[in-house]
Amino acid sequence: MSASPDASPERLLIGGEWTAPDRGHYEVIDPATEEVVGLAAEASREQVYAAARAAREAFGPWSRTAPETRARVLDRAAAILARNLDPYARLARAETGATAGTARVMQVGVAIARLKRYARGALEPVETPLPPQINEAGPFGKAAVLGALAARRPVGVVTCITSYNNPWANPAGKIAPALAMGNTVVIKPAPQDPLSVHRLAEALQEALDEAGAPPGVVNLVTGRDPSVGEAAVDAPDVDMVSFTGSTAVGQRIAEVCGRGMKRQLMELGGKGAALVFDDADLDAAVAGIGTTYSFYSGQICTAPTRVLAQRGIHDRLVERLAGYAARLKIGDPGERDTVVGPLISAAHRDRVESYVELGRKEGAHLITGGDRPSLPRGFYVAPALFTDCTPAMRVVREEIFGPVVVVLPFDDEEGAVALANDTDYGLLDYVWSGDVARAFRVAGRLRTGGVGVNTVGRNMEAPFGGFKRSGVGRDVGSYALHAYSETQAVVWPG
């Protein structure tokens, strides 16, 4: 896909109006063809501040709308996405390099599901009754029985800064629960693939207009200059920042939020460990770990990129992982049998390749992959597998965010847990074992926000977030509704 209707210059959404950007446009590039997909808007700092002001003005009336109204808006936006599923999936594939199936099901499809989920979420109870308390007479008055409840209230204006690896599901997972709780939003997409987020914002604005919502409930600002994201964080009218991205950027955002006492929801980097015991189903383990190679070409923070293999199955597991990687078709993500598409940009391809070279220099053994496939264009790297690794190597310790897996051996359960926890990250780990009791015992000792036992599947009502440098807070399911709300205590005499 190259320049089609999506090549027309995009605008910003500020206060319910589609607005020309102060700083012109920049090209969005298809990572598979290196052709122009569209022209994204470059906002000025002043326009970002204006978007935050518009969200502040809309917050009062929107936060007082009936939950049923908010539910209708989200359901209507989901219906608009479903109606345009095919062109939206093509756009997602073009600007992200995701395979056709991934773009359709895991990007646009998941965005639709999340909008519907939080349409229901808007109707969930926000008040929790608490047991009455008997107070003796004292400085605060006569003896009394006091009733109380804990009520969740909207935070206010939420800046949603989204990741490039899924420009549909990731923003929908932020915007939908925020709106369901009565917040207003300023959306700042990743600069690499903002066009999909434009389509999502259009659907939301259409639904808001139909519902007679105040202007400014949803605002969209885009740009590749760092000042755009900085303004979306430090704008005085912003009460909360929800960010998905690298730990380094998350730390800088947290510093700004700390100065302003702004709420944060951070989903940051990961270096997930896959603990594979001698009694594991190796076919299942290889298929699960293989998602690192194929799903978004390893550009996913939940990928099991550190494989910890018990010595009894180490060599067999390495052999099977290498064979799995070698069988994967790399190429045009539009072709039905393609499994591994390109990385998001030339710069990121260079970064992944630099880690492959670093692994060699550190003494790791490259079993397969790590090179550029013989394709005429596109930002591709063949899935790579390293063995003979040590815990101190940078390829073991640092998030590469590409199709690169490292393997380390362990002797027993204690050694496996120690290796798994020897990391700055703690987002999602995995345990493969035929002994389910052991698998759950090990899971309880892992310092990570989630553990998959004999699966890489996700339960989309389970809380999601990280320990350590992998993030702050939890979202997904009803946990997201809590994340985008403040808790207020209300007390009265009985």
Automatic annotation (TrEMBL):
For this protein's source organism, the top of the classification is:
Bacteria, Bacillati, Actinomycetota, Actinomycetes, Kitasatosporales
Q: What class of enzyme is it?
A: oxidoreductase
Which residues belong to any copy of the Aldehyde dehydrogenase domain? 18-490
Kindly provide the name given to this protein in its UniProt entry: Betaine aldehyde dehydrogenase
PANTHER family with a match to the protein in the record: ALDEHYDE DEHYDROGENASE-RELATED
Might you give the EC number(s) for this enzyme? Answer: 1.2.1.8
Query: Which gene carries the instructions for this protein?
Result: gbsA3
Provide a Gene Ontology MF annotation, just one. betaine-aldehyde dehydrogenase (NAD+) activity
Q: Which InterPro entries match?
A: Ald_DH/histidinol_DH, Ald_DH_C, Ald_DH_N, Aldehyde_DH_dom
Q: Which UniProt keywords are present, listed alphabetically?
A: Oxidoreductase
Tree of life domain: Bacteria
